[in-house]
Amino acid sequence: MGIFSSTRVPPPKVPTDTVIPLREMDSLPLSVGICNEFSFYFQDVLNVHKLQAALDRLVSKEKWRKMGARLRRNKDGKLEYHIPAEFSEKRPGVLHSQQTFATCIADHPVLSQIPKGRGEKPVLMHPSWHFRPHMRGPNSPRSYEDWLYADIPQLAVHFVVFKDATIFTLTYLHSFMDGSGLATLTRAWTAVLRGEDDSLPPFIGYEHADDPLATLHQQRPGSDYLLAPKALKGWGFFVFVVRQMLERLWWPQEEARVVCIPSAYIKRLADVARAQLDAAHRAKNDDGSGSKPFVGESDVLLAWWIMNVVRALKPAPSRTVALINAFDARPLLTEMGLLPRPEAAFFGNAAYGCITLSAARNYLRSTAEAPLTPLAASIRRDMLTQRTVEQVQAQLAALRESLATAGRPPLYGSSDMMFFAYSNLNTFKLYEADFSHALMSTEDEDVPKANPEAYRRGTPTWISSTSTEAGFSPRNTGLFMGKDKAGYWWLFACLRKGAWKNIEEQLKAHL
């Protein structure tokens, strides 16, 4: 019995459906086992009918119809997409739902508390789970089985409309799309909303044979992967699993929170880090030769956060901290000629991870010893060395080899490691998604907003992320949604219960 076993019976097959196997990357438990929900909050009233019609029109277009596929297993247990020959009210391309209130959002007991960026220091906010029941559809799917055993499309969209605000929530499996796919969807949706259907990017990967990742692993061996010598095997992997089980025995509960971080705060840290790196470079190179080291704000942001988390968890200084920093491989696929351009509509999963390994003591040093700068520099260095054509090819080869020999994805590090995985969606500019062509006139549209510099009509003010996992824990994972128009970074993270109290104390003590 697997983690996805069920006594439920799937709907009967429809003979006119087009059947396409899922890609191997999209069939992994980590892909089909995650149900994502992204909620977009607007300080505007949007025309839901226009939004629904535009999305339905997008999904009805030739290869874009794959978005309306039904998920099924064949007789061999392999996952497939079954695409209806045409979409109808009975078999829609998108699962729509709507709730309308005759009041302002300020009158709602829960959604009135949607967080807003404020102040000059990082602060903890209400968890997204606090709002989730009020932003998702009552019949929206919640797990892999809800898709497998019902005749529903891959995407569910629920709209919540107030007299002065609109929220819509996208619900889908991670196998359907990654962060880049979400950005592609919003760009395509808004293009159709504007009537610019001709500007849609080419849809790649409709057929199984049209998969740009299909032969990527054949280009070089997995042994070429830089982290290959650090792969956990045999006894080392067994010890790691036992330690993870003990961790969940001692700390069985976990908690997700939202962190709001002013960009000005991170910019100050980044300026200090760059100055320290520049000074160290000049000290080593009196003549100014050699390439100057550089760290971006995203590097500093991630290093700062992981430093806070490690200190809150208080591990032994000798323990290894393994940090997976996800990146989008589409630009590299374009470089290899496998995609026509990075913005092509390639749905599914094309995200890989840069891995930074470091002893916990490097995160535990006092602030006076400036641990942030070398940590940010190591994150940047590993991104530069691992985010290459050759390393992506080798990493995928290592993944295929591990799946074939061990039946699982590989793990890199040490048997005692603390394992973290984070993504940063800022590069996808979700806060710039322009739905202004769906704006409706309201009585208060001329009333000045409280923070006008952070407000542009038809664009989201806040974007929330929640997920439901099947068969594994989201502990020690997180997502940087990006930087909003007011200049605040938004982080959604999950840690073992109790760690957040330490985080809060640290934020107050060091600011």
From TrEMBL:
<dbReference type="InterPro" id="IPR050317">
    <property type="entry name" value="Plant_Fungal_Acyltransferase"/>
</dbReference>
<dbReference type="InterPro" id="IPR023213">
    <property type="entry name" value="CAT-like_dom_sf"/>
</dbReference>
<protein>
    <recommendedName>
        <fullName>LysR family regulatory protein</fullName>
    </recommendedName>
</protein>
